[in-house]
Amino acid sequence: MSRSAHPAGPRHADVLPEGHYSAPPADLNALDPKVWAQTVERGEDGVVTVGGIGVTQLAEEYGTPAYVLDEADFRARARAWRTAFGTDADVFYAGKAFLSRAVVRWLNEEGLNLDVCSGGELATALSAGMPADRIAFHGNNKSPEEIERAVRAGVGRIVLDSFQEIVRVAHIAQSLGKRQRVQIRITVGVEAHTHEFIATAHEDQKFGIPLAGGHAAEAVRRALQLDGLELIGIHSHIGSQIFDMSGFEVAAHRVVGLLKDIRDEHGIELPEIDLGGGLGIAYTSDDDPREPHEIAKALTEIVTRECESAKLRTPRISVEPGRAIVGPTAFTLYEVGTVKPLDGLRTYVSVDGGMSDNIRTALYDAEYTVALVSRASDAEPMLVRVVGKHCESGDIVVKDAFLPGDLAPGDLIAVPATGAYCRSMASNYNHVLRPPVVAVREGEARVVVRRETEEDLLRLDVG
Ligand SMILES: *Cc1c(COP(=O)(O)O)cnc(C)c1O
C-alpha cells in the first residue's frame, strides 16, 4: 500500500497518515440522528425519507444535486432557541448561514430576529416581511448606500465596526432626521475554535474595535457624543463551530468590564449586550453539541454573575446563532456519477455537484459524513472520498467516509448537516448551476430557492 508516493501536496494527492480515518460504522444503513435532520429516516424499502417523502421521489421531481431542507426541524430548532432564552433575551438568526424568503417568514412566525450583513440580505429580509425593528445590520464595511437604506428602513440596530463607521452612521442618521440605535462591536481577545479557545490581549482580525489599548472605550466616548446615534450596547462575536463555553465566559467577563468602565466614566449603564453566534453542530458522530437550553442557561449565568460582581444591572442579552439553527436541518442530495477504486488507497466517488455547492471542505478542511440513501445495502464497507465534478483536485465534498462496496452510478447519496454556509457560499465555478433548496414538511415538498438555469448564467453575461 503506497502512502508516500504522491509528492504533490495535500490538495492534490493527500497521503493519509495511518489511522487518520476511523473504523467503518457498525451499520452503514443507520442514520445518526445527531447529524441528520429530525424527520429523516430510512423506510422499510431502504429508501431514506424526509418529512415523509422519499429521496428518490425528490430526485425525480427536483433533480440533483439539491439541498433538501426539513422545515419542521428548522422551525423546531428556531423555537428551541427562542424558548431557551425566554422573553428577557433576543435571538437573532444569522442570515449569512442561509437566507431565503421562506426562511425569513419562518423566523418571523417563530418570533426570532434577524442579522443581515449586506444590502442583499437586508433586501431579502424586508421583502419577506421581517419587521425592520427586528433586524440587526452587521459588517465591517457597510457602504454609505447600505447604511442609508438600513436607517431609512428603520432597522432595530446597526452594529458599528470601526471609528469611521461611527461617524458615517451618525451623519447619515442625522441627515435623515433620525436617531439610529447602535451597538459597538468590540474584539475582546478571545479566539474560539471548536474545542478550545485562546484568550489574548489583542486580536489580529478585521472585525470590531479592540478592547485592548482603550480603543473600545474611545469608540463609546465618540458614539455617546453624536446626536444621530443611540448607543444601546456592546457586541462581541468570538468565532464559529464552538463547543466549549469557556470562551464565552472570558468574553462576557471582558464585555461586562467595559460596561462597568462606561458606567464609571459616563454614569450610564448600557441596556444590552450581544454575545454573537458561533455555537457548534454535529457534522459527524464525533461532535457533541450542546442543546439551546444548556447554552442559554450557561450564558445567562455567566452574564448575571459578572454583572453582580461589577454591581451592574444585568443587561438584556442577545445571541446570534446561524449554523446551530439551520446547519443540521438540511442535507445535500447527489447522484453518483462515477466510482473509481484506487487499489489499496480508497475509492473516489464523483457526484454531480461539488465545491460549488459545498466549499467548506476545501476552504476549512471541514468534516462531513455521507450515506447511501436511495436503497439499503448489506455490502462490505469501502473507504471513499466523495468528490465533485469541478476541474480542481481540491474539489472534495467528503474527505473520508465509508459507503457500501456495491455503490454504483445512479445511486443517490446524501451529505448531512449542509444547511449552513453551503447554499449561501455556493458559486458558479465551471459554470455549474447552483442547486435548488427544496423544503419538505409533512409529506409536501416545495422549492424555496429554484435551481439556476443556463439562461440565468447567460443573462448575466451580456456579451
Ligand atoms: C457569522 C456570525 C454569526 C453566526 O455564526 P454561526 O457560527 O453561524 O452561529 C453571528 N454573529 C456574527 C456577528 C457573525 O459574524
From TrEMBL:
Q: Name one GO molecular function term.
A: diaminopimelate decarboxylase activity
Where do the annotations place substrate binding? Answer: R323, R360, Y364, E392, Y421
Keyword Lyase tagged: yes
Instruction: Tell me what reaction this enzyme catalyses.
Output: meso-2,6-diaminopimelate + H(+) = L-lysine + CO2
Domain (Orn/DAP/Arg decarboxylase 2 C-terminal) spans 331-419
Cofactor(s) needed for function? pyridoxal 5'-phosphate
Q: Which UniProt keywords apply?
A: Amino-acid biosynthesis, Decarboxylase, Lyase, Lysine biosynthesis, Pyridoxal phosphate
Q: Which CDD domains match?
A: PLPDE_III_DapDC
Report the EC number(s), separated by commas if there are several. 4.1.1.20
Record protein name field: Diaminopimelate decarboxylase
- Species assigned in the record: Streptomyces rochei
Taxonomy, top ranks, is: Bacteria, Bacillati, Actinomycetota, Actinomycetes, Kitasatosporales
Originating gene: lysA
